[in-house]
Amino acid sequence: MNYFTKCVLIISFFCACGLHAQNNDLYIVKLKSGLQIKCELVKVIPDSFVTVRQYGLISNIPYGEVVSIHFSESAVKVQPGRQKTKVFKKNLPDSGWSIGVQPGFSMGMADDDWLTSSFQFRLSALKSLSKKWQAGVTVGLDPYAYYGIVLGTVLAEGRYYLEKDKPRSAFFYGLGGYGFNLTSARLGKDGGINLSYGFGKAFRNKNQNIFSYMFGYRLQKAQEDKLVWAPIGSVNRTYHYVMRRFEFKVEWRF
Questions:
Q1: Is the pLDDT of residue 57 over 70?
Q2: Residue 19: which pLDDT band, with cuts at 50, 70 and 90?
Q3: End-to-end CA distance of the chain, in Å?
Q4: Quick one: which of 66, 177, 188, 190 has the most CB atoms within 10 Å?
């Protein structure tokens, strides 16, 4: 190989090294066999070998087999942009009012020492007052199969979260209001107070949906008029119920 060709190869090598760190330029390496290789130049050692990278593989070509090296094109490696990480928002709705759907289950002792259980359903409308407080109104249905009554409850609800600006947090809740006896003809008279309190935990997932579960204790009072048999005939008697139960609820908040 003549002196001029050697100079061209050396100059091409240094140019390639200078550009390699930026854009990984491609070169055409022409061999005496007539084969032309498009590749990246890694190293050129005069009178020894030429190191090239092709498809991620590194190989050495004897220096004496190389006829010429010519620049082909710039193959800039584009770094994929970082995917935007979804930010976990706080476990409270961002602002204003939100609606929660609460199916639940309760269990306790009846007045005559029988273990009873029932399902319950609530709709909760709460407003975020601060980063830790929520308050609003909750309505629902409480069917008591053992007593044969169904109560429609209207309650004021408050919640206090132990942590703020986090995707999950424990909280305390309290409710107080009135349960109307929907199976009674005297709708406003045969119900009673409804009080409940407990604790729960709220989760906000990557899709920004809020899920909570709650454990608590509930006190419900009600009354009912029944015709019962007596020696003097059927008489109308009023029964007063005090239903104390433990409750478990789950909630999806929108």
A1: yes
A2: very low
A3: 78
A4: 190
Nearest C-alpha neighbor of 38 from the set 47, 46, 28? 28
Q: What's the total number of domains in the chain?
A: 2
Per the document, the length of the chain is: 254
Q: Is residue 83 part of a domain?
A: no
Which CATH number belongs to the domain containing residue 166 in this structure? 2.40.160.20
- pTM as predicted: 0.61
Please tell me whether residues 66 and 107 are part of one structural domain.
no
Same domain as 133, residue 173: yes
User: What whole-number distance in Å separates Cα of residue 195 and Cα of residue 216?
Assistant: 11
Coil/strand/helix, residue 148: coil
- Tens-place pLDDT, residues 180-224: 999 887 877 788 999 999 999 998 877 778 899 999 999 999 988
CA–CA distance, 224 with 181 (Å, rounded to integer): 8
Residues 126 and 34 placed together within one structural domain of the fold? no
What percent of the chain lies above the pLDDT cut of 70? 80
Residue-range definition of the domain harbouring residue 239 = 97-253
pLDDT at 113 over 80: no
CA atoms of 159 and 136, how far apart (whole Å) = 9
Three-class secondary structure assignment of 51-110:
EEEECCEEEEEEHHHEEEEEEEECCCCCCCCCCCCCCCCCCCCCCCEEEEEEEEEEEEEC
Helix (H) or strand (E) holding 175: strand 168-181
Residue 89's pLDDT is what?
60
* CA pair distance 95, 74, nearest whole angstrom: 52
CA 87 to chain centre: 10
